[in-house]
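Slide 14.
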Amino acid sequence: MLGACIENVRKNVPLVHNITNYVTVNDVANVLLACGGSPIMSDEPEDVEDITSICGGLNINIGTLNQSSIKGMFLAGKKANELGHKTLLDPVGAGASKLRTETAVKLMEEIRFDVIRGNISEIKTLALGSGTTKGVDADVADAVTEDSLEAAVKFVKDFSKKSGSIVAITGAIDLVSDGEKCYVIRNGRPEMGKITGTGCQLSGMLTAFIVANPDNMLEAAAAAVCTMGLAGEIGWKNMQPSDGNSTYRNRIIDAIYNMDGKTLEEGAKYEVL
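Slide 15: predicted structure.
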């Protein structure tokens, strides 16, 4: 039951260490608080091992890389693995530059990730070890559509088996797979693409969900993706004529804050293939 997953987050208040990008760091923290988690942000190499040691989960987001933060990512990731903590990789913009691509691939090689979450272009880049993306957005040629759904489901299942991670591909249609099953999720609004960082926010929230549901991580990951998409729908429904994308961002966070298991169960739109 997906609804139980968000209730477990609120009950357990998981502490999540985020090495995330400075474009969206405040929104990531607020979404974690809204869903019932607790955020800590730190990317300083001398700080990250201590910080990740006191948390239950680690969210690594490569959106604004520098040599110091890269070092911090590897130190924190290895410490999290050593302690058996839950880990997530968000390969923002992998394929857009050599540094991003090489960093994401090396992180996958040296750190075990419970979940990898990105758009289809970023995940294809990781699967191939190289690629191109349109900045941090998915290339339109890669978009998961009803016509390409069967092939996309096979791809995400295969990459999940190869990587040993649950893989979440988000876009107009979201896919979440552990290599055996794949949740096909149709929640969300196209207007969410006008807000910077909904994917970054989801990665932080998804980390909290898997920490709070360690024995049910596939369903927890799917529940987090449904929560974000459903919040986008609820937030859009509450928009007023004079509201814009800044207000929409806040309405999405408010919708997550007010989300409960019953609302999620009733509003989640998914099938399992």
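Speaker note: Residues 217-237 form the longest helix (21 residues).
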